Each structure stands twice: as structure tokens, then as C-alpha cells.
Amino acid sequence: MPSVSLSTLSFSILILVAYFFSLSAASDDGTKQLLDGINKYRSSLNLSTLIDNNHAACLADEFAEKLKSQPCTNTTGSNTIPGTEEQFAEYPEFLKNCHLNVALTRDSSTLPACVPGLDASLVLSNFTKSQYNDDLNNTGFVSAGISSEGDWIVVVLLKSDVKSDDLDFSRSRNVVIGSIWSAFLALFLSLLVWF
Question: Which fold is adopted by the domain 30-171?
């Protein structure tokens, strides 16, 4: 059996854990990139930038989860005729899950877009060069949350900034559980490599 120093084993585990953490962070890159693009768009119009809002992101995630099984067509997402958007009976439950209430979301705007493969250049134009640009140009919106599932990406705009200190527990819990599993997998793979 080969002799392996504890420092070599620790370093290998550290590298693998860092790799798995980077994989989980990559899924948020598209949403951050879209918020950055929207904020650059708003800045070019001399509008204030939108604050990233965890509660709005939670609500966007609820909508994206419901939409992910729907195919992209020329009548879905940003191509939808205003007033014909799908209504979700679970909306009150979505608000409860995200620690929001009707008063905070009464004047909100939910903007779903379906873009095959979520191509970054097409995603941004689905918001800035569509019926959604009226909402993006609205000076009343101060915060946003974004989430994606499958080919769907959803932006939720709020007119007030719900304090972001109160993180969505279920999201935080999922990140912790995923990180623990990644660490165990990294440890297991390291042991297999060395023994």
C-alpha cells in the first residue's frame, strides 16, 4: 500500500471540494450575468440599478420551476400577448414560501422568457428588446430576483426592497446539503486514488 502524507491527502481533498463548489456557483452565473446586463441597460437610460433581492429570486424560482416543462414557442415567455399569461393557483403558496406578501408584490412584475439553451446574448435581448422593456424602464422598480430552470429564465421586479438579510432557508439548506455531499464525494474519490 503506498504511503501518503496527510498534507498531500488534505491538499487533494481541498482541490476536489473547491472544484465541486465552483460547479454549484456556475448555475448562478447566468442569473448574475442577466442582472448585470439589465443594470447596464438601465444605466444607459440614466435609471437606477436594481438591487439583487433574495425574496424576489425565490419567487422567480417558484415560477421557473413551474414553467420548466413547457416548450418554447412563439406564444410563450416574452412573446406572450399581454393579459394571456398563465395564472398560477399556487401563487399564494409561492409568496408564503418566499416570505413575501400580497402588499409587497401587488405592483411587482414577473417576466418569464424561454430561450433554448439560455444563450446569454439572446436572454438579455428577450428582456430589453421585447414588451418587457417597459417594465425594465420603469423607475418605480428598485429590486429584482432572477432564476432559471431548463430553457426558462424568470425575472421578478419589486417596487420595494424586501430586506435581503432574511435569506430563504430552503435555498440555504440545499446549498449546505449539496456542499456536504460534494465534500463526501471528494473524500471518497481521494481515498480511491490513494489506496
Answer: Pathogenesis-related Protein p14a (3.40.33)
Where are the domains positioned within the chain?
Answer: 30-171
Q: DSSP alpha helices (H): ranges in the chain?
A: 6-44, 54-67, 91-97, 102-105, 120-128, 133-136, 169-194
Give the cell for residue 13: 481533498
The span from the CA of 74 to the CA of 64, in Å, is 18
The per-residue pLDDT of the chain, averaged, comes to: 74
Q: What is the pLDDT of residues 125-182, one digit of tens each?
A: 888 888 888 999 999 999 999 999 998 999 999 987 655 434 344 444 445 555 665 6
Higher pLDDT: 105 or 8? It is: 105
* Coil/strand/helix, residue 130: coil
Q: Which of 58, 23, 53, 25 is nearest to 38 (CA)?
A: 53
d(CA 120, CA 115): 9
The closest alpha carbon to 189, from 4, 3, 17, belongs to 17
Packing angle of the helix pair 6-44, 120-128 (nearest 10 deg)? 30
Q: Which residue has the higher pLDDT, 16 or 125?
A: 125
